[in-house]
Amino acid sequence: MKHAGKVLTGAVLAVMVALGFSGAAAAKSLADSKAVNGGLISVGIALEISEKCPDISARTIRGYTFLNALKKQARSEGFSDAEIDAYVDDKAQKARLIKQAKAYMASKGVDGSTESYCKLGRDEIAANTQAGNLMRAR
């Protein structure tokens, strides 16, 4: 499961880079945005599953569209680009989001095995969750 944490960390970092964010300090109030944080967690989960399960792939274009919508959501909540940049670069916030994503996956039976990732991916797709919408079964 140690490697899974590295992949998830990389997934969250990739999400943040794809959003075009950069900066240094944390904008703590963005941590309270359920829409933005939930979206980042969903993207991280979808990327993790698509990396771990050979039967599931990420919907790349849909993912980028969703990431742009998250950035727009943060702006609509009154956050400046500088505040968004600072938030997504904050290591403590990244760790918090990764921890939440791991906890969710573990609560759904992910034990580090390929089959557990595939099962969760199929379940998310079937349930039409946000993470499920960002994946497709091959």
What does this protein structure show overall?
- The chain has 138 residues and is mostly helical.
- It has one domain.
- It contains 7 helices and 2 strands; from the N terminus they run ααβαααααβ.
- A two-stranded antiparallel sheet has the order 1-2.
- The chain is globular and about 40 Å long.
- It starts with a helix and ends with a strand.
- Mean pLDDT is 85; it is low at 20-27.
Task: Please outline the helices and strands.
Blueprint: H1 2-18, H2 34-52, E1 56-58, H3 60-76, H4 81-89, H5 91-107, H6 114-127, H7 130-133, E2 135-137
Antiparallel strand pairs: 1-2
Helix pairs in contact: 1-2, 1-5, 2-3, 2-5, 2-6
Number of strands: 2
Main sheet?
2 strands, antiparallel
Evaluate the radius of gyration.
Answer: 14 Å
Which segments are poorly predicted (pLDDT under 50) over 5 or more consecutive residues? 20-27
Strand order of the largest sheet: 1-2
Helix and strand content put the structural class at: mainly alpha
Instruction: Provide the number of structural domains.
Output: 1
Binned, the helix content reads: over 70%
Cα(first) to Cα(last) distance is 24 Å
Count of helical stretches: 7
Give the overall average pLDDT: 85
